[in-house]
Design brief:
globular, 199 residues, alpha+beta, 5-stranded antiparallel sheet, 10 strands, 32% helix, 30% strand
Length: 199
């Protein structure tokens, strides 16, 4: 399993100069302004993938926008937030989510948290950080469980956040085994990632 985060610190032109095969990303950026944030995220992701895979790979997307590495036995998941991109690659389905830290998560908590998660957050030393981790963990597992888990609030529930081991435990409706999510935190973002196993 390869996991990497990259800060977006170049211009679109500088990222494009690192890429040889424009056709691999041309369709994704064709209708975007040259200076748009989305364009930068796409190009930065392609450069990060090139670095991780030791060469450019074709990335295709399914009808729901989930990425795959064309012609590869590897699975990929991609995430981006203000100023950062994150990628995970492994031999099994994977998920990754990166979220910029801020106060907005407090305003939207009722859209993704269950009452049991409210109690869990209240018992942690940093409730706002815990809310970020719950949101990011749910986004992570949604990426490998698929569209049937679109209702993150109702269908998934974080049961434990282990700050010492950097692990989150979650249960999901219809699955007998708990899901384990790894996490990292910085002063700027939270990062969650997981590999599908044992379901």
């Amino acid at each position: 399993m390869l996991v990497k985060v990259s800060r977006i610190d170049k211009t679109a032109e500088e990222y494009e100069a690192q890429l040889e095969y424009k056709e691999y990303y041309a369709a994704k950026v064709a209708n975007l302004r040259p200076d748009s944030r989305r364009r930068l995220e796409i190009l930065a992701t392609r450069c990060l993938l090139k670095e991780m895979l030791d060469g450019e790979q074709i990335v295709s997307y399914d009808e729901y926008g989930a990425p795959s590495l064309t012609g590869s036995g590897q699975y990929v998941s991609i995430s981006h937030t203000d100023g950062y991109v994150a990628v995970i690659i492994a031999g099994k389905p994977v998920g990754i989510d990166i979220e910029r830290r801020g106060r907005r998560v407090e305003r939207v908590r009722s859209k993704f948290m269950q009452p049991a998660e409210d109690q869990l957050v209240g018992a942690t030393p940093d409730p706002v950080l815990s809310m970020h981790l719950i949101w990011s963990a749910k986004e992570t597992v949604f990426k490998y469980l698929g569209q049937q888990y679109y209702d993150l609030q109702r269908l998934t529930c974080v049961t434990n956040i282990d700050f010492d081991r950097h692990l989150i435990t979650m249960k999901a409706v219809g699955l007998s085994n708990p899901l384990i999510i790894n996490f990292e935190t910085t002063e700027n973002y939270v990062l969650c990632y997981s590999i599908l196993s044992g379901l």
